[in-house]
Design brief:
The complex is a heterodimer of chains A (190) and B (237). Chain A is of the alpha/beta class and 190 residues long. Helix content of chain A is 32%, strand content 19%. Chain A has seven helices and seven strands, in the order H-E-H-H-E-E-E-H-E-H-H-E-E-H. Chain B has two domains: 4-74, Ubiquitin-like (UB roll) (Roll); 94-223, Alpha-Beta Plaits (2-Layer Sandwich), CATH 3.30.70.20. The two termini of chain B are 34 Å apart. The chains are: A alpha/beta (190), B alpha+beta (237). Bound molecules: iron/sulfur cluster (2 copies) and FE2/S2 (inorganic) cluster.
């Protein structure tokens, strides 16, 4: 690069990061926040777009999208597609995004039977409980799916949840434009 | 001159009759494996121990060691094949590690870590395999069975009880229990049987001890399977 070019180069643009929890428990987001004070240097290099941390409702063009949770209902499908359409690099974050996780343990039970048992015939239900049918509720899918079964995923970061250190390493690699790898002890499925 | 072969460039001695796997294990070298166990006859079914000898694929647990063999084991290309085999095993069963008592002690999981498997990649089958909790002391969780036949071999060859067998072919292969009802409680199986402790995954589990050892302090937590000094050693020994 010529001198002239080097002088003209603007300071590196902050990368845009979007995050979402689909059929997850927010455990991965909590683990993300466990990077603690490292959040501050991170915020000098990234800026949050849609995320539970910003309350922005729709994802704009982003560099990195982190998706926690699998896909269990029609809204999840829509949001996941929105993330894929807007994020240059899409990451499946955590066990549920990677393989459906514990919510996918319902996959062998017919949806109707499942709802009957949970809301009508199971233990400890209030008298008169019924299956929620508010039209605003997204419709459940027959099975819970990992995100890669619905859209193309660039990177996978397993763990229930992935540790803060694993998330930190992974994000740093992505920000620096390296292919992320998980160092010793950071690859865990549980 | 002693008989020896080259494993990833290292000289490995062997005695007549040893397989490549046995000689490598005796020398403290790790060749990934699932269905092989030092105490049992090789089964050659999981294909995880695939190596290249003189450029040709062979399963290290079944192929005899021979003088001058050049064996390629932990190359990126072969580990990538192994990763694919592992991914197939993961999607064929129901492996929810966060809720599995075997997590941290599981050879399938530890091998997947060692091979750097980040995703199951394929579409999941999510099979429906009811578990058998009939036995007072031991639980059968068929959703995690990888059909390695170690329990079959242990029960037949060591316990002399023939409690387990594989039935069906291809995709329909599955583990069965040798009793008229098909339930474990109706066999002479005992928690002290070798077959009760040999399963590499969380398919045969002793009841009421699942979390006696906390997650994080288990076999492969401090020491990845590939760094094991005695490959093939499992926590049941
Ligand atoms: S058997 Fe192993 S791989 Fe399967 S769920 Fe249990 S710990 Fe995970
Ligand atoms: S139950 Fe365990 S030991 Fe038996 S075949 Fe299945 S995985 Fe192998
Ligand atoms: S360990 Fe050799 S085929 Fe399974």
């Amino acid at each position: 690069m010529s001198d002239e070019h080097a002088r003209a180069a603007p300071p590196p643009r902050k990368l845009k990061l979007a995050t979402v929890s689909l059929a997850g428990c927010f455990g991965c987001h909590t683990s993300f926040l466990d990077i603690d004070e490292r959040l501050l240097p991170l915020l000098e290099r990234i800026e949050f777009d849609r995320s539970p941390l910003t309350d922005i409702k729709h994802c704009g063009p982003c560099d990195i999208g982190l998706v926690e949770g699998g896909v269990c209902n029609a809204e999840n499908v829509e949001v996941l597609r929105e993330f894929r359409a807007h994020c240059r690099v899409l990451v499946a974050l955590g066990a549920c995004a990677v393989n459906g996780g514990l919510p996918a343990q319902r996959n062998n039970i017919a949806l109707g039977e499942l709802l009957q048992e949970v809301y009508r015939t199971g233990h400890g239900l209030a008298a008169g409980s019924r299956i929620p049918d508010d039209p605003e509720l997204p419709l459940l899918l027959n099975q819970v799916h990992p995100v890669h079964e619905v859209v193309r995923i660039d990177y996978f970061l397993p763990g229930c949840p992935p540790s803060a250190d694993a998330i930190w390493d992974f994000l740093n690699a992505l920000i620096e434009g390296r292919a992320p790898t998980l160092g010793p002890g950071l690859l865990q499925y549980d | 001159m002693n008989d020896s072969f080259l494993l990833d460039g290292e000289t490995i001695p062997f005695s007549p009759g040893q397989t490549v796997m046995q000689a490598a294990a005796a020398a403290g070298k790790y060749i990934p494996h699932l269905c092989w166990h030092p105490d049992f006859a090789p089964h050659g079914s999981c294909r995880l121990c695939i190596v290249r000898i003189g450029g040709r694929y062979a399963t290290a647990c079944t192929v005899g060691a021979a003088r001058g063999q050049v064996v390629e084991n932990r190359s990126e290309a072969i580990d990538a094949e192994r990763r694919t085999l592992l991914q197939l095993l993961f999607v064929e069963g129901n492996h929810f590690c966060p809720s599995c008592e075997k997590s941290g002690d599981c050879v399938l999981q530890a091998t997947a870590y060692e091979m750097g498997m980040l995703t199951p990649h394929f579409d999941h089958f999510y099979p429906d395999r009811p578990l058998d909790a009939s036995h007072p002391e031991v639980l059968l969780e068929f959703n995690r069975c990888i059909l390695c036949e170690l329990c079959v071999r242990a029960s037949r060859d060591v316990d002399r009880k023939n409690v387990f067998a594989l039935a069906g072919r291809g995709l329909r292969s599955h583990l069965i229990v040798n009793s008229e009802s098909g339930r474990l409680a109706d066999t002479d199986f005992a928690a002290t049987d070798r077959a009760a402790a040999v399963c590499p995954v969380g398919a045969i589990l002793k009841k009421r001890v699942g979390f006696a050892m906390p997650i994080g302090k288990r076999t492969y937590d401090p020491r990845p399977i590939g760094k094991s000094h005695e490959p093939g050693t499992r926590e049941d020994e």
